[in-house]
Amino acid sequence: MICFLLLIVMLPILLFMKKQTSYLNIWIIDKTVPTRDFREHKGLVWVLNNMKIKNRITKDYFDYKKDYFGFHPEENGYKIFEIQPNNPDFIYLADTYGVYTDDFNKDNKEGSKSELIYGGLTEEELFKIKSYLNNGRTIVAEFNTIEYPTNEKVKKEMEDIFGFKWSGWIGRYFAELKRDIEVPIWVIENYEKQYNKKWDFKGNGFVFISENNEIVVLDKNDFNKQKLKVVFDDKYINEFNVINKVNFNYWFEIINNKDSEVLAKFVLDLKDNGIKKLEGYNLKVEFPAVLRKITEDYKAYYFAGDFADVKSVPSFYRFVGYDFIKKILSFNTESSQDAFYWKVYVPMMKKIIKDAKTINEKNLSQEIYNYKGVKLVSRIRDNEFQIYKDGAWQKLFIKGVNLGLATPGKWFTQMPDNEIDYLRWFDMIGKMNANVVRVYTLVHPSFYKALRTYNEIYKENPLFLIQEAWPDENPKDHNYLDKDNLQSFLKEIGYVVDAIHGNVEIPKRVGKSYGKYEADVSKWTIAFLVGRELEPEEVISTNQKNKGYVYKGEYISAPNGEATEAWLAMTCDYLIKYEDEKYKFQHPVAIVSWPTLDPIIHRTEFNKEGKKELEYNDKASVDINKFDLGEKNIAGFFGAYHIYPNYPDFMNNEEHYKEYQDEYGRLMYGGYIREFISQHKKFPALVAEFGLATGMGNAHMNPDGYNHGGVDEITQGEGIVRMMKAIKREGYIGGIIFEWMDEWAKKTWITEPFMIPYERHVLWHNANDPEQNYGILAIESVKPEKADLEFLNDGIIKKISLFNDETYLYIELEYDKNFDFKNNEIIIGIDTYDRLRGDFKYSSKIDIKAPSGMEFVIKIKDKEAKLLAHPDYNIGNMRFSSRKTMNGIFEEIRPLINKSRVTMDGKFIPEIRQDGSTLRYGDFTDSSHSLYISDKIHIRIPWGKLNVTDPSSHRVLDDSRKYLYYPERDRFKTTITDGFVITGIVISNNNVIDVFPEKQNIKDLIYKWKGWEEPAYRERLKKSYYIIKEFFKDLN
After folding, report:
1. Which of 670, 946, 961, 1033 is deepest in the core (most CB within 10 A)?
2. How would you label 123-155 residue by residue, b for 16+ Cβ within 10 Å and e otherwise?
3. Domain of residue 211, residue span
4. Which of residues 105 and 782 earns the better pLDDT score?
């Protein structure tokens, strides 16, 4: 008998021992662990261990004290364990409410609110989670995953993942409502403030709380005996093997399902007066408790209550059938969730976990090749760029994008300091089918952390990094070999290498990145670049000051080069040696240069006297053919060049470039890159920058239409594809598009003098500046929905509305639906400053006068429009100050963009001027559009075209001095405008048939917009993105 009883006792244990072990990698995310009771997730861990599921990472049973991401309390502090991108099979969000100062390692019986220590689901964490919602993975989340302190953006994305919408209300059952027992003090205080009466509730009851801190209390007089139950639909009771209609006695939230199925619902058993209380706040007695959403990619479950929160679980789990016994023998009690845990949560979770798929993880980590003790992930061989993959060296054609990282309102060195911005951009770049990102300088540590995270998630298609070491600009005496300058650069090179290996803490410094670099991205870094676009004057000066200086190194030499070439060889050699000796690692290294310094003599870059000395381009050179590899160089060496189709001018003027033909016809860009690669004999070449700028300004005209700015987004995409085809065809090792996103901090020669004060130009977007509009990702301001100023009219023009943002002045005109655009003309006058200056006539042919002097007019006829300037305020004619006139003469704005040239054989090449007046037609879905006509006339004019030097502070150009050429930055005189005046007329057969606005009182007409110190903006993928994405997909 004793043996029989012993067998009965031992049988469940023996059955557990015989049970097959399963392995899952489960992300348990719990940010609400103020004390070491781990109550938010230890109930889940018991289920896993009882199912004999072990941790696929540790190969051991799950430990609720260690095996979770989030807040880990300790006796003397705490640690944060961040989510690691390690290919989970199953994701479980237990609680993200967080830990607060009054709760941490304390028993906060009052439930007082205090300062947050750690909590809320972050955008970085959401990115990691979303990245793994594929291959049929399962994700489960509980109550309070989306509420405070999780931000609104994350909340909305989480709602989409799980297929519901939160009502803004949460609730809880309390076994005792009496003050100072269970109900948090902040609930009581809010109730007393809301209802202006004392909290005098006693006995059990419910408290409902809105996100606006509204309180609804249901006491024992408002509900029946059954209180709150979780009721499953009949078809799900058997599927999940649950006991139906079990009481729920803890926190819950009121949600509404969208595209998910309701497996179970909460049902409140209320009396009529209780129902009425809830109806007063649009709350119902039934609402979802368990949701399921199944997509092609993932399966999601949402528990709208604190389901796993349990005070204690058995310390033993190696017992088959224990959960069944507890399921039968657990009984509802007012102050415990035990019955719910055993009757509902455990059987439901066992079914969900059992159905979860094991995601087979391939060994896809970036491989490292070891050659005589030196590690390599990339190399140059046989004039090819190669990476080590799948145990072999494979050719890589670089299809990359350059990352300039200045967001609006920031300068180049003020890079984002959070991972999510970089992760978001990497995600878009990866989906564009690029394989490389290039950065110019050392970036904020969060960049490298984000790159590591991204590549650990997307192991099969990582984004490789090309990292540049950037020498300081404006070196002392224009001498790169100046001792202080050289030591500074070598120190920077050391920082760059150490940062790539995640092994440096750089002290705070001005104008450069600093901080603790812990993310080792060396296995995804495929090359280092050394240098920048060196200025010809600096090259000439360095060569003159250091005549006879040569360099012979162990890795790179320039024994026959000029001093600048020797300096580049020395710094490249230093980088390779530093990394080799410190990390036993080598990467290919390249010098950076541009056509301005190419070794080719260009016949069209001469002055009138037939000399090059006075020309900026083509008077100095850096020649990679003068470099040699040292004996210790294993990884290789190459050249990285910034080559655009429109600058220098010889790109547009050399006649023999016109002979180059591709499948679309003539391509002068192809002519140059063919000529350049033909003399680049010793090492491979990478086109490290190329691209086209959108926007509304043009700094150089190209005969093939690939101008320096002002191209539409379709042309941008098609032109980039065409140039990349030529780059590949001519034997380069790849191309890197300039650039990923528009940067408002940039400038070019046609706009820099007019951005005053220069220190504020990052606060607004100059659509006239090509350099600010190279991005594939548009960083654009957002037009307000509501007009700042409106005028009603009874004539042909019915309404005038004025708006502004960080880029444009917007004018909208509502017009009579019978208006004939072909045979009539609209003239809009723009008075930008000083009501007594400017021209008072809209046209020389019309006598009617404007209420104030106008600096500009816009003439619209038949979907064609031009912006014309007062002759004294026309920057195209070097006139920068308005004056009073009465003749109605306004001129086209045509600034110089291509200088006149003389070729080597004396042929004159005339200058080219930009059309700064024509307003390009389009529906504003492209950054080049200025005019659109629908039921309204929509006009947007870049601030710069109106001679506004800083719209954020209302500053406009006003300089009556004479100039032969544009001065340096911040030299023009300016003034503060008190606002614009926008008026107009409608003309038919030289007769005025309408004047608008009807009110002509100047005081009523002045439009003074609000200034700003923080720019608002949004991101938008340009049309070019999708063209490049499609091309890159098949470009190998």
Report:
1. 670
2. bbbbbbbbbbbeebbbbbbbbbbbbeebeeebb
3. 16-355
4. 782
Question: What is the pLDDT at residue 107?
Answer: 73
Closest residue by Cα to residue 775 from 1033, 429, 435: 429
Whole-number pLDDT of residue 8: 65
Per the listing, tokens 């109930």 go with 43
> Could you tell me which of 167, 238, 175 has the C-alpha nearest to residue 206?
175
The 3-state secondary structure of 461-475, one letter per residue: CCCEEEEEECCCCCC
Bridge partners, 465 (sequence order): 437, 525
Residue 9, domain member (yes or no): no
Contact 350, 52 (CB under 8 A): no
**Given this model, what pLDDT does residue 641 score?**
99
Q: Is the pLDDT of residue 806 over 90?
A: yes
**How high is the pLDDT of residue 904?**
87
In this structure, the answer to whether residues 860 and 965 fall within a common structural domain is yes
Q: What is the spatial distance between Cα 293 and Cα 709, in angstroms, rounded to a whole number?
A: 47
**CA dist., res. 857 & res. 865, Å (int):** 10
Compute the distance between CA of residue 719 and CA of residue 721 in angstroms, rounded to an integer: 5
Strand residue runs (E) in 855-971 = 856-861, 864-869, 891-892, 896-898, 901-902, 908-909, 912-913, 931-933, 936-942, 948-950, 955-957
- What are 917-924's contacts with CB under 8 Å, separation 24+? 917/866, 917/867, 917/868, 917/869, 917/892, 917/893, 918/864, 918/865, 918/866, 919/858, 919/865, 919/866, 919/867, 920/696, 920/712, 921/863, 921/864, 921/865, 922/712
What's the chain's Rg over C-alpha atoms?
A: 35
Confidence check: pLDDT of 364 > 60:
no
- Summarize pLDDT for 51-79 with one digit per residue, the tens: 999 999 999 999 999 999 999 999 889 99
- Asked if residue 793 and residue 676 are part of one domain, the reply reads no
User: Do 823 and 900 fall into the same domain?
Assistant: yes
Alpha carbons 521 and 334: distance in angstroms, whole number: 54
Q: Is residue 294 a contact partner of residue 311, using CB atoms and an 8 Å limit?
A: no
- Cα separations (Å) of 18 from 45, 75, 318? 21, 39, 11
Inter-residue contact 86 to 97 (CB < 8 Å)? no
Cα angle, residue 794 at apex, residues 791 and 796 outer, rounded to 5°: 100
Q: Work out the burial of residue 875: count CB atoms within 10 Å of its CB; fewer than 13 is exposed, 13-18 middle, 19 or more buried.
A: buried
The string of DSSP letters for 806-869 reads SSEEEEEEEE-TT--TTTEEEEEEEE-S-TTSSEEES-TT---EEEEEESEEEEEETTEEEEEE
Asked if the model's pLDDT at residue 302 lies above 70, the reply is yes
Do residue 713 and residue 800 come from a single domain?
no
822, 845 Cβ separation under 8 angstroms: no
Cα separation, 556 vs 572, whole angstroms:
7
User: What separation, in Å, do the N-terminal and C-terminal C-alpha atoms of the chain show?
Assistant: 76
Q: CA separation (Å) from 609 to 167, 546, 604, 905?
A: 79, 29, 13, 11
Q: For residue range 689-721, what is the model confidence (pLDDT) as tens digits?
A: 999 999 999 999 999 999 999 999 999 999 999
Burial 190-217 (b: 16+ CB within 10 A, else e): bbeeeeeeebebeebbbbbbbeeeebbb
Distance CA 857, CA 841 (A): 10
Structure tokens at 996: 């608008």
Residue-level pLDDT at 3? 63
CATH code of the domain in which 697 resides: 3.20.20.80
CA-based torsion, 379, 384, 385, 389: positive or negative: negative
Q: 717-753 pLDDT, tens per residue?
A: 999 999 999 999 999 999 999 999 999 999 999 999 9
Asked if 327 and 384 sit in the same domain, the reply is: no
Please tell me whether residues 636 and 579 are part of one structural domain: yes
527 and 669 both lie in a single domain = yes
Of the pLDDT bands very low, low, confident and very high (cuts 50, 70, 90), residue 465 is: very high
Backbone angles phi, psi at 476, to 5 degrees: -55, 130
